[in-house]
Automatic annotation (TrEMBL):
One of its GO terms (molecular function) is phosphatidylinositol-3,4-bisphosphate 4-phosphatase activity. It comes from the Eukaryota. This is Phosphatidylinositol-3,4-bisphosphate 4-phosphatase. The keyword RNA-binding does not apply. Keywords: Hydrolase, Lipid metabolism. It comes from Oncorhynchus mykiss. One of its GO terms (cellular component) is cytoplasm.
Amino acid sequence: TSPLHPHTLLLNFNSCTLLTWETYPLFLTGVTFPPEYPASPETLVKLTVYDVRDKARDNVSKPQSVSFLGSATFSVSDLLRSKDDQLTLNLRSSDGVLAVGTVLVSRVNMGEMEEGDMDHITADVQQAQKCTLVCESSQGTPIDKDNSPLTGAVFKNPVCKVYKFQTVDSKWMLVREQMEECTLSFSIPRQLLHLYIQEDMRRIQELRDLGELSPHWDNLRKEVIGRYGQVIAAYQETLAELNKITGPSFKPSCSKAQRYLEFIPINLHTQRMRVTCPRQTDAFYDVITVGAPAAHFQGFKGGGLQRLLSRHEAEKKSTAYQCIYYSPEHTAKAQEVLHSVGHLQPLISGLADQLLQAAQQHSMAGLREALKTLAGKTEQFVHALKDELVKSALLALHTAQPGYSPPQNPGHSPGEDGQAPLKRQDSIPCHKEYDEEEWDRVWADVAKSLNCVIAMVDKLQEQEPINNNQEQPIPKQVLADVITSHNPEGDWREQLCPLVVRLKECVAEVVVRARRAMTFVLLQEAACSIPQGLFLKQRRDVVFSQALAALACGFVMRLYAGMEDKGFLRQLHLVGLVAQFESLLSTYSEEIGMLEDMEVGISDLHRVAFKITQAKTDDPCDLQPVVIGRRDHYTVEVPLPRLAFQTLPHEIKEGKALQVYPVLFNVGINEQQTIADRFGDISLQERINQRNFEILDSYYKSLSLPCFQTQMDLKDLLGTLGQNVVTKKRKNVEILWLAGTICRRLNGIRFTSCKSAKDRTSMSVTLEQCALLRDEHQLNKDYFIRALDCMRREGCRIENVQKNIKCRKYAFNMLQLMAFPKIYRPPEGTYGKVDS
C-alpha cells in the first residue's frame, strides 16, 4: 500500500541478538513473492535493517533494544538487468546521507528444483564481506514434486528453508530443508488406546469364563478384574480427552508431562534435506525427530522400565505366596496360545465347511484342495496348543476348583485361608483324582477325527465312477446313477458330514480347555503383580505408544520416498528394514530413567509388522495407517491409492508382513553426562550400544541382496562401529555418526532423539546434514562451519524451537555448552536460559 507501488514489499532485517557487526558481519534471509502479490518489473522492494540486542545476556525474559541501522530500495527490473543476477546496494541512514553498510541482493532461479519458473529474491546484509550463503524462509510451501502426493494425508504444516552453498570445484548447490508435522502423532495412540481397552475387556471376560473357583482363587480373580477395570476406565478417560483435541499435529515439549497427552510422542516431526547440484540427480536425506519415548507424567523416581521390570520380576519370585509363579516366558506363551485359539478355530471351522461344500458339488479337485488346507491348519493348531504349559496349567486349574483338598506336606504351613501356598509352576501338587492322560486323549480324538475325514475322502476318490480328469466332464446319466444308487456311499456330503462335525467338536473341546488353562496362567501373572505389575503395564503401554507413532511415521515416510525404487521394495519384502534410533540422553539423574524407558519401548517395536493395503478411495481419510492386533503383536496396515498399490511387487500386494528391526544407540553429550562419565555409572549406555550393534551386525549378515554384497565399505563401517562400542571413550559421538551412516547405506529409517527433540536434537540434525553435504556433495570445507551456523541460526530447527516454546532460542546456557563437544554447540546469540 506504499505510494511507491501498490505491491511494494517491505523487508525488515534484524541483526543477530547479542552480536556486534564486528564479530558477525552478515545476516541471511530471503523472500518469495506470493501468488496473491505477483512481482512485476516495476515492483519496488525496500530493505530496512535494525540491530536487535538483549539488555541482559542469556536472559530472554528481559526486553530487547532495537536501533535503526539503515535502509535501501531497489526495483525488480534493476535486479533483472544486473550482472550475474546480483545487486550491491548501500544501506543509508535515516536522512539518506550516510552509508552504513552494504546489502547484496541475489536472484535465485528455483526452476532447477521445482516444476515451473519460480524466482526467489534473497538478500545478504553485510558490512565488510561478501556472503555466499543464502537462506530463504517459506511457511506453508507446497510439497516438493518428488514428495508423493500421498504425503498430504499423513504429513502437514511444512516449514521450508533454502540455502545456496559453494562446492570444492567452485560450483553452486541448492539445499532445501523441509520440516513437517505428522498426523500419526495422535492417530496411532488413539488406535492403540482402543486396542488396549478391547484387549483388557476380553481378558476380564475370559477370567469370568473360568467358572467356579475356590474362595482363595475367586478373591484373587475379583481383585484382578477390579484392577483391569481401573485401567480401562483411565484409558477411556484419556481417549475421550484426546478425541476433543484439534489443531496442531504434534505435542510440544512444554506438554510432555501432561496426563492426557502421555501416550502422544513428544515433538514428532519429519525433516528432509534435498540437495540439487549441477549435472547430478537430486538427493534426499530424511530423518524423524522425536522426544525420547518415556513416561514423563509418571516420573522417574524409581528409574525407568528396564530397571523397574527387572526389580519387579525378582520381587514376584520372592513374594508369590498366594499364587503360582510363572516366568515371563510362560506368560508370553500363554498369550500366544490364546491368540492362536482365537485365530485358528474359526479358520478350521470355515475350512471344514468348504470341505462339505466341495462334497456337495461332487468336486474331487475342490475336495482335495480343501482337505489339504484343512489338514495343514489342523497341524498348525496342534503345534500351537499341544504344549506342556497347557497340560500343567490344566492341573493347576483343577486344584483351584471348589472341593479340592491339597495334600498336606510336613513342615509346609498353609496360607491364611487354608490354601497351601503355591510358589513355583514346577511344584504344583498332583491330585490323584485328576486324570493327567485326559489331555492327551483329547488330542488323540482330534487326530482320529482328522484321519477319518482323510480316509473318507480317499474312499470317495476310489468310488469315483470316472477318472477325476477336470478336462473330461462327468456324463449326466453316470452322475445320476451315482447319486441315486442304493449304495449309501453315493452322497458324498452325507458320508462326510458326521466326520467333519466330530472334528469340529473335538477342536472346540481342545479350545475350551486350552483357553481356560491359559487364562488361569495369566490370572496368576496378574495376581502376583498386584498392584505394581499393572502400573508397569500402563507405563509400558505409554512408552510403546510413543515409540510406535514415531516408527509408523518413519515407515510411511520411507515407503513414500521409495515407491519407485525396485531395489528398496525388494529389500522391504525379503528381509525388512532397519529403524535406527539415535539418542543423546545422559546416563545421569532423570535422564537415565528416560533412557531405560526408551530402551524397552524401542525393543518392544520388534513385535510390530507392517502390511501394505489398497485404499478404498484416494480420500486422505482412507490413506491413514490402521493398527490391528494385541499387545504381544501389532500390525500396522498402510493403505495406498489403487494406482500406487498396483506398482508394488507381488509379495507386498499379497499382504506379506513386512518386518522392521529397531536398534538404539545412545551417547550423552551434555553436562550431566560429564558427571556420569567421571563419577557415575555408564554401564547402561555401554550395554545398549553393544547389544544393538549385535542386532545391526546380524541384520547386515542376513542380507543376500547383490546391492549390499558389493558395498565393502559397509563391512568396514560395521567393523569400526564394533570397535567403538567397546572402546572406553567419553562422549564418543563417532558411534552415532557411524550408526547413522550405516543405516542410510542400508536404506533404513533414521530417528534422532533427546529429551524433547528440540535442542540437542537440533544440533545433531544440522551436524548430520552438513556432514552429508561435505561427504556426499563436496561442500567446500571453508563453508562447513558457516553452513552449520546458518542452519542452526535460520533453519528449520530454530523454527521447531519457536513452535515448541514460542521463543527462537535453544535452551542452553554457556556453562552447559562448555561440556558439549564443540561441533554440537550453537552459534552465539541463538541460545539462552529458557524452559525446555
